[in-house]
Write a structure and sequence with these properties.
rod-shaped, two-stranded antiparallel sheet, Laminin, alpha+beta, 4 strands, 18% strand, 100 residues, 2 domains
């Protein structure tokens, strides 16, 4: 096939029943009719963007967990202070008969 069966020059043309199929060769991407060389810089940018978003999501999750844990700890501290205050007042409470 002189024109590679209508496929891109960087594609493999395969005869199938009723026609043909074009597949880009290794190192190229596309639909087989139009193949472009894969750029390593594009892949690196894609990986960098994915890692960045992953790290940002992880940081946001950690901040949320710490926020809710802090709220829970503050609630527990407030609750325990109320209990201590009630106990303290009960301990220093003087009966009416002994006030004179």
């Amino acid at each position: 096939m002189e024109d590679n069966g209508g496929c891109d020059s960087n594609a493999k043309c395969t005869n199938i029943q009723g026609g043909f199929e074009c597949t880009c060769q290794t190192g190229y991407s596309g639909d087989g009719f139009n193949c472009a060389e894969k750029s390593e810089s594009n892949q690196q940018v894609g990986i960098g963007v994915g890692v960045t978003f992953g790290l940002l999501a992880l940081i946001a999750l950690i901040v949320l967990i710490l926020f809710f844990l802090r709220k829970k700890v503050n609630f527990l501290l407030i609750s325990s202070n109320k209990i201590k205050t009630k106990i303290k007042y009960k301990m220093i409470e003087i009966p009416k008969e002994t006030r004179n």
